[in-house]
Amino acid sequence: MAHRAELIAVGTELLLGSIVNTDAQILSERLAELGVDVLYHTVVGDNPRRLREALTLARSRVDIIITTGGLGPTYDDLTKQTICDTFGRKNVLYPELADWLRDLFAARNRPMAETNLQQAYLPENCTVFHNHNGTAPGCAFCEGGVHVLMLPGPPRECELMFRTGAEPYLRALSEGVIASHTLRIYGKGESDMESLLRDKIEKMTNPTVAPYARSDECMLRVTAKAATAEEAEALLRPAVDEVMAVVGEWVYGVDVDSLESVCVAALKARGATLAAAESCTGGLLAKRVTDVPGASAVFLGGVVSYTNGIKSKVLNVPQSLLDEYGAVSAPVARAMAEGARALTGADYALSVTGVAGPDGDGRGNPVGLVYVALADAAGATVKECRFGRRTRDHIRAQSVNTALDMLRRRLG
Amino acid sequence: MAHRAELIAVGTELLLGSIVNTDAQILSERLAELGVDVLYHTVVGDNPRRLREALTLARSRVDIIITTGGLGPTYDDLTKQTICDTFGRKNVLYPELADWLRDLFAARNRPMAETNLQQAYLPENCTVFHNHNGTAPGCAFCEGGVHVLMLPGPPRECELMFRTGAEPYLRALSEGVIASHTLRIYGKGESDMESLLRDKIEKMTNPTVAPYARSDECMLRVTAKAATAEEAEALLRPAVDEVMAVVGEWVYGVDVDSLESVCVAALKARGATLAAAESCTGGLLAKRVTDVPGASAVFLGGVVSYTNGIKSKVLNVPQSLLDEYGAVSAPVARAMAEGARALTGADYALSVTGVAGPDGDGRGNPVGLVYVALADAAGATVKECRFGRRTRDHIRAQSVNTALDMLRRRLG
Fold first, then answer.
1. Superfamily of segment(s) B4-173
2. What residues does each domain of chain B span?
3. Using the beta-carbon criterion (under 8 Å), do A26 and B45 form an inter-chain contact?
4. A210:B12 CB<8 A
5. ipTM, interface predicted TM-score of the complex
6. pLDDT tens digits, residue range B152-185?
7. How many CB pairs below 8 Å do chains A and B form together?
8. 3-state SS record for chain B
9. Which CATH class is domain A4-171?
10. I need a labelling partner for A351 at 20 to 30 A (CA). Which of A1, B226, B237, B395 fits?
11. Do B17 and A39 touch (CB under 8 A)?
12. Facing B283 at nearest CB: one of A300, A304, A359
């Protein structure tokens, strides 16, 4: 049976919203890979009574408890003593840790305040986890069939100690691995995926398929458990194929970063270049493409033509088109894309013109009406989008996604 | 007595580490300002039994429960039914929400899957919270002295609904009002603010002053409690003045949205226009300016000159400068800003050229070296920035912040 875990973060600064519980995300992701089912995250403040209650509840419902935070030298860090009290262990000095701390401070030429020695205390008979990024060691012990692991709060200390200390400890407990593939989708939502794949989602047990909503897109994760990574992969491959047969049309990539990274990679593979001409997206399309490291190999540049003057002067959009159809129109989108291509000499050019809101454009076009065009040597294609009365951010993001999706389909 | 709250996030994707519990951080910060003590954060998966247990425990130990997530239309979103079962309320159809959903889909020209109607169900006799950023409404009700608030999971939906729905609901529960002003700071960090204001932070009790770190900037919040809004404001005003006397130089605005919104407002006030020329920021500067609704009144457009060819051809940067100094240089930054101003006829032009990484520029310039220029009728000023070996996103964001801060100081 898979191990079941609860993560307990200790820190009033989390409850005040001063920091976000990054540790829980990092550890959950790693634990999923190890085949440990994380059932609960809990956050309590620096309050011994509430921590003790949380620990008591946790030991009744999971067999792995991982605490983060509260190992440092400061006054309000009472985690260790509370854990010792709850599990009936003594908090004892580990002389080798005291020596290590003294050496650490000596090497930094800094005097060591006596409070720092608190960090050399851990529950008796525990497995010590060394801290390679800080001064607070962590540990693990098992009491009554429940494994308790204590990790430091700062994310870079926590993450490294998990990798070097906790992960080997946990691997020794478990059998098997969990592996997954992520299908990234644009153009259909989470509920569409749910409807299209309902049978598979309900019937599949290993691998499983689950849809996840993202802010402007969605994804499907196919996950398998097996004895080895190879066996997990062997289970995954046919499941991914099966899912792709149903929804492949909307999948822009498997295990990829983003639509823009897929476009940059496809352009690189063809040795082709890209330019952009943007009106309502105001630079967001160029920004998204240049978010991808190495985009300079394929992206030549772009024009943000926020006024008709710039559209005609820089992009050579004929004034007659602007007069006749207005800036938010298919003919102008086409002329912008062709103009950007001519100006830069790029193989492909994308353009966007539309009404991102909150106000209309004065010509009666509704908020959310956007034209996206893609030009190449063969001419230009235009797509009309009606995103409706959504926020400006949403309309702009969807306009860029539509443009990138047109490009990846053309290059695909 | 202060209200005590528990935040319960529902979502297997949190337990798998696919996403971080941003909602808990956002809500905790806002609740602290409202004078609500947050005692616990809890995360459970899409599992009715565990959610029910978490709710049962929560109602025994706090008087405000706020759930996030699980309001969407998909199969595994069972939050609402479980909350209804636990608190003995019926889950009923709100016809006005069903109409609203149908209108929303009609406006987007998209067919509405029947599963979407689930979103129009809420516990009977609840206060409905409208969702201005998505399709899932939230709500609040009180049962046996415990207030239960249900908010959607996606952070931008959750945050907006908290502000527009939950916050007024919670304010109505407490006596007196809490009011605050937020001083937005660029160019100094949280720890600088802490040092500069230590005395005031420690001594002030009502109002209080607290610094908060943001990804690329920081802010100070001055908060007062009083019987009425007028009394709170009367307490706040001298406190804000006192803080401004110490750190005013770095405060770009009080209760403002962003550096870019301050710039757009200042340009509007002068009837002046702006253009941009970007290399390493690749459109981010233009994007940020056009994030501001109404930016079209002052922003004419920009050029993303990601290659030297575009810099010389479109922006008229002399080839001799590019050859002699390279694209990442003060003379080229100056020529880009002047070129953008000449091309567009704008009153002000900002330019950015630098090395955002992850690789150097082939001329030996280090990652993080960026030149930012501001041109107006009197000429151009250039600022050299060394952001160091940070992430590409960080360097690009800081480059844009530097450019906008130069402009707001010039206009200020």
1. MoaB/Mog-like domain (3.40.980.10)
2. 4-173, 177-254, 259-411
3. no
4. yes
5. 0.74
6. 999 989 999 999 999 999 988 877 777 889 999 9
7. 267
8. CCCEEEEEEECHHHHCCCCCCHHHHHHHHHHHHCCCEEEEEEEECCCHHHHHHHHHHHHHHCCEEEEECCCCCCCCCCHHHHHHHHHCCCEEECHHHHHHHHHHHHHCCCCCCHHHHHHHEEECCCEEECCCCCCCCEEEEEECCEEEEEECCCHHHHHHHHHHHHHHHHHHHCCCEEEEEEEEECCCCHHHHHHHCHHHHHHCCCCEEEEEECCCCEEEEEEEEECCHHHHHHHHHHHHHHHHHHHHHHEEEECCCCHHHHHHHHHHHHCCCEEEEECCCCCHHHHHHHCCCCHHHCEEEEEEECCHHHHHHCCCCCHHHHHHHCCCCHHHHHHHHHHHHHHHCCCEEEEEEECCCCCCCCCCCCCCEEEEEEEECCEEEEEEEECCCCCHHHHHHHHHHHHHHHHHHHHC
9. alpha beta
10. B395
11. no
12. A304
